[in-house]
Amino acid sequence: LPDIRWALELAIVITILSGFVGVLLRRELLQKLLAVDVISTGVVALFVLVAARTGLTTPILQQSPDAPSTQMADPFPHAVILTAIVIGLSVQALELVLLRRLARIHPMLRIDDFEAEP
Amino acid sequence: MNTLLPLLVGWLLLPLMLAFLAALLPALGRWLVLLSCLASLAIALLLLQDPLPDPLPIFQSPRVALQLDVYATGFVLANGLITLAVLLQSWSSPRHKLTWVLMMVLHGAINSVVLAADAISIYVAIELVAISAFLLVIDPARPGTFWVAFRYLLISDLAMLIYLIGVQQAYRSSGSFALADYGTLPLAATALMAVGLMSKAGVFLTGFWLPLTHAQAPAEISALLSGLVVTAGAAPLGRLQLVSPSLSEVLLGVGLASAVIGIAAALVQTQYKRLLAWSTVSQLGLVLLVPAGAGVLCLAHGIAKGALFLVAGRLDSLELSRMRHGGFPPATAIPTAIAVLSLTGFPLLLGYGAKGALAADLEVPWSRVVELLSIGTVAVFAQLVPWPGEADAAMTLQRVPAGPEGHRWAGPGPWLLVAGLVLLPLWLSQPPSGSAFGKSALTLAAGLAVGWGCRALLRDWRPPDLERFDDLINGFGVTAFVVGLALWGLRGGWL
């Protein structure tokens, strides 16, 4: 499906940019954190897209030698982004735990309240 | 060579496995940290004694590369020494029960990051560094550290996502994750990867999260952050610079800007740890100037700055105006003075050889600029010295009492690092030339004069706040744009 490729790419770029704008403009820490998650979704999609250049089939070698093996997705970006997803999840989890502690200091979690402190 | 390989793999895995063990047997924790530090020191000294002629690949699949080479030696040595010093300093009073486990994870992750020669190993190791540093920064007893730690992890997360976008672009064009294949990449790929790493290294604009974090963290942790965690950005950035000369040229500008702004900001601080943290920004800027010497520079800076932060942890007051007037007991002043002299490149100390390598690798106008910057470094630390006859009526009233508090020992950690500053130059054989002492004395005198002058002139001036969160996020956009534009220009795009 080469003809919708540019559309997919455009959608991903919009996702990443909207996440970036969210991190910048939102005033509450939880929303900033979720905006970072939006960026990370975009980054995952980018890697999936680059893996699809070589084909769309799951990259598992068939036992029979005559099975077609040319249209497989590139496994390396998949492996890489799987690692990145796991790391991203654990980082987000840590940040959420700390956010609960921060909510005891300023329950509204507004960034200006935290930055105003010395 | 082949006999060395299993040893190296074992050494890389050792701190991480010992961290698991320490989590199960907390009583053994400090001894296990000691074991991992000694292992790293042994490897580093082995490499110093007998430098590898060629890079030694440890894992070499088509897409993953870890290699031990001369470039990594300085970083590994710094990692061993600084972790050991922090361990000795907090031997009997770890801040919380996970301290030892986290220190080992950090130690192992930094060893991996300096050996990593492919984009993905670098990414994974940096994330590991960031997570363990984040957990170390949190001090349960001081809620003030929570916000700083949260901010650190959020910015780090964002930096690594930007880095990953760059890696994706690089893979699309080169079909590989190995840095060796990244000589000619599309602009966006190089710029985004570099911006992500620059943020981790704490240099110009994207790295300005650093001073607040390093100043707020507990003193021992600040020593780890300023001495080691920044190398997790600087080491891979240097490797990227080595394969991409046009990036090197762009980062020359970034490094100089970082060095100048770091010194300017440090000059107007009123709190000692903030002064040290801004000085880290300026020193890391110098590291960017010569990628091949990054290891030695990071080693010299990390040891000196580590010692300074560890001493700061034993001081009663960190207000500079107070420290000038009796807040510095003699027992803590000696290691501080030696570390500061090394930072300014005084002969016979480790910083001299590092600064010498810096000046030798740069072309003429830039090496002169670097010499001027050493005057700036002296001026920063002149904030600690009262000028003759300087007296502050308010301060003399509340002079720090010279009781048992006033005669406190600096602790074993700073002395270990100071010993390193004095002894390592003997090992690395950096004999100072005859004129070096005179030149250095001149730098010190000029720096003191500049520092005192700035203090007298800028007494009532407050610097603009460069560290607001939104400005830092804007900084990512601006830096990526500027680095991209500069790379484009260097490749003939402007013509």
Largest sheet of chain A: none
Largest interface: A-B, 36 and 34 residues
Name the overall outline of chain A: elongated
Cα-atom radius of gyration of chain B? 22 Å
Structural category of chain B is: mainly alpha
Helices of chain A, by number, come to: 4
In helices, the fraction of residues of chain B equals: over 70%
Proportion of beta-strand residues of chain A: under 5%
Task: Specify the oligomeric state.
Answer: heterodimer
Average pLDDT of chain A: 86
* Low-confidence runs of chain A: none
Q: How far apart, in Å, are the first and last alpha carbons of chain A?
A: 55 Å
Summarize the structure in short.
The complex is a heterodimer of chains A (118) and B (495). Chain A is mainly α and 118 residues long.
Explain this structure.
The complex is a heterodimer of chains A (118) and B (495). With 118 residues, chain A is an all-alpha fold. Helices cover 69% and strands 0% of the residues of chain A. Chain A has 4 helices and no strands. Chain A starts with a helix and ends with a helix. A two-stranded antiparallel sheet of chain B has the order 1-2. In chain B, strand 1 (56-60) and strand 2 (65-68) form a beta hairpin. In chain B, helix 1 (4-24) packs antiparallel against helix 4 (99-115) and helix 17 packs across helix 20. Chain B is globular and about 65 Å long. Residues 402-407 of chain B have low confidence and may be disordered. Chains A and B meet through helix 1, helix 2, helix 3 and helix 4 of A and helix 5, helix 6 and helix 21 of B.
